[in-house]
Write a structure and sequence with these properties.
- The chain is about 40% helix and about 20% strand.
- Strands 5-4-3-2-1-6-8-7 form an 8-stranded mixed beta sheet, sandwiched between helices. Strands 11-10-9-12-14-13 form a 6-stranded mixed beta sheet, sandwiched between helices.
- One of its GO terms (molecular function) is magnesium ion binding.
- Pfam families: Acetate_kinase.
Amino acid sequence: MTILPEGERPNPYSAYGAHGSVLVMNSGSSSLKYQLVNPVGGEAIAAGTIERIGEDTGIIKHRFAGNTTTREEPVADHGVALRIALGLFDEVGPTLADADVYAVGHRVVHGGAVFSAPVLVDDEVVRQISELSPLAPLHNPPNVKGIEVARELLPDVPHVAVFDTAFFSTLPDAASTYALDREVAQTHGVRRYGFHGTSHQYVSGKVARVLGRRIEGLNTIVLHLGNGASASAVRGGVAVDTSMGMTPLEGLVMGTRTGDIDAAVVFHLARNAGMSIDEIDVLFNKRSGVKGLSGVNDFRELRRLIDAGDEDARRAFDVYIHRLRKYVGAYTAVLGRVDVVAFTAGVGENDTDVRAAVVEGLEPLGLAVDPERNAVRSGEPRVISPDWTSTLVMVVPTMEELAIARQSVEVVEAASRAW
C-alpha cells in the first residue's frame, strides 16, 4: 500500500459539491425518520418514516414528488430499516446518485460535555457518543446504531453528528449547575445540558433574519412546544438558560412527561408505593404530563374534551399553561429585556388557544396577542402581537432537518478546507 505525502493525498471531501443534497437521519429506539434536504433552497426533496422497528409489523412511509408510498412489513432492526429506506429512494425516487448527496447528517440527542458543536463522524466519535449513553439511555444507543449502519451502507459520503445539546454548551455556570455535592455531580456528569438545541438555535436565528435585525442585539425567549416541550432564553444568539436539564424530563409540562417535579416524589413512591426506579422512570416519562392528567396527549383531542366540559382536560390545560407562564416570567428576569417571544413546534405553531393563554395578562411585561393575527394559519414566520406592544410575539415554524443539513454542510466544508 502506497501512502502519499500529505500534500499529495486526494481530498476525501472534494467530490461533494456545495449544491448537493443532505440526507438527514433521526434514529429512535423503534423508528427511523429521514429527510433528503436541499440545504441551499431549504426544501425537503423527499422524506420518510419507518416505525415499529423490531415488532411484528413495521409501518413504512416514503414521500416524494407529492406522492406517499405506504406499506407494512417486518423490520427486524435499524440495519434492515435503512436498507429499506435506501431501496425506496431507488424504487420511488429520487435516486441518491441523482440527488448528489453531499453528506449524511445524524441527529444525536446527547453530546454531554464532550461535544459542543457538530462533528465529522469517525470511529472515535462513534465510541464517544456510545460512552455518553448513560446520560441518554433511551436515545443515544439507537442514534449510535443508526450512524453505524449508515456508515456501512453509505461509506463514500461524509457523515456528521449534530447534537441536541450543543447549542446549550454556552450556558453560564449559574444556569447549568445543580446545587448538588460537587464531587458527586462532577463524577457522574450531573448538570443541565438542555435539549431541542437545534430547534432553539434555528428559531432564534430565523427571528433575526425575518425582522432584519442583527442577532447580536436581540433577546429572545423560544418556546418549543411539541409532545416534548422546552423553553430557552437566548441573548444575542447565545443560549443563557433552558428548561430541560440533565435529561429531557425537566422543565415544562409535556405530552407525557412531568416536567419540573419535587425530587422527593421519587423517594415517596419507592417507599410508600413500592415502585421500582424503572417503574418511576416510566411513570414520569410515559404516563404523566398532559396525558397523565387528562388521558390524552393530543392537544386537538384535549380541546374537544375541554369543550365537552371535561374537568380533567381543563385542569391539564391550566397546569400546562401555568408552567409555561412561569418560565416566560423567569426568562424575562434572566434576560432583563425581551425583544421577542417565539412559539414553535407542533403545538406552538398550530394551537391558537395555547398561544393566547400563555400571553394573557402579561401586558405589564409588554406581551399581548392580537386575536386576528393569532388566528391566521400559515407555514410562514409571522408576528401575532398587536402593534403597540414593546415585545413581539411570533410564530416561527421550526425546520430542524434543514438546520441539521446546513450544519452538516458547514462541517464538511470546514474539513475540506482544512485538508
